[in-house]
Design a protein that fits this description.
RbsD-like fold, 30% helix, alpha/beta, globular
Length: 146
């Protein structure tokens, strides 16, 4: 165990988050997402909700402040302008935890899958609600004064 590190952040996941550079993307995916087939690097967090994983990831990873869309969700097929309840929860977590809170931008389903395949890694959660997927772009930490 480490002090100040969320206990759901496994050693493998911490390695991935640390290895990512500015502009790299990570997918937090629901239980139905084709995670392993989409991933260059893959971590399972079965039994843990996607919003809870988002909170843990954002507790250590800066969200990119140089782009308009550092957080992207999957657009609903039957209601492209709607927001699923799980995405509303994602937004609440981002607003509360992120160092650079940003509005989640929806992306068409198949475009989301394409973007996920280019991501640095996929975290497969136990989230059972549909559309419980979000892509995060990693930002930078501010320079510390000497």
């Amino acid at each position: 165990m480490l002090r100040g590190i969320d206990p759901i952040l496994s050693p493998d996941l911490l390695r991935i988050l640390r290895a990512m550079g500015h502009g790299d993307e990570i997918v937090i995916a629901d239980a139905n997402f084709p995670g392993e087939a989409s991933a260059r690097d893959f971590v399972r967090l079965d039994g843990i909700s996607a919003p809870r994983v988002l909170e843990a990831v954002l507790s250590v990873m800066p969200l990119d402040s140089f782009v308009d869309d550092p957080a992207i969700s999957m657009q609903m097929v039957d209601d492209p302008d709607g927001m699923p309840p799980v995405v509303a929860e994602f937004q609440t977590v981002i607003d509360r935890v992120a160092d650079n809170p940003a509005q989640i931008r929806p992306l068409e389903r198949f475009a989301f899958y394409d973007r996920a395949r280019d991501a640095f890694a996929v975290i497969q959660t136990g989230e059972r609600r549909f559309y419980g997927n979000v892509i995060l772009k990693k930002g930078v930490l501010p320079q510390e004064d000497a």
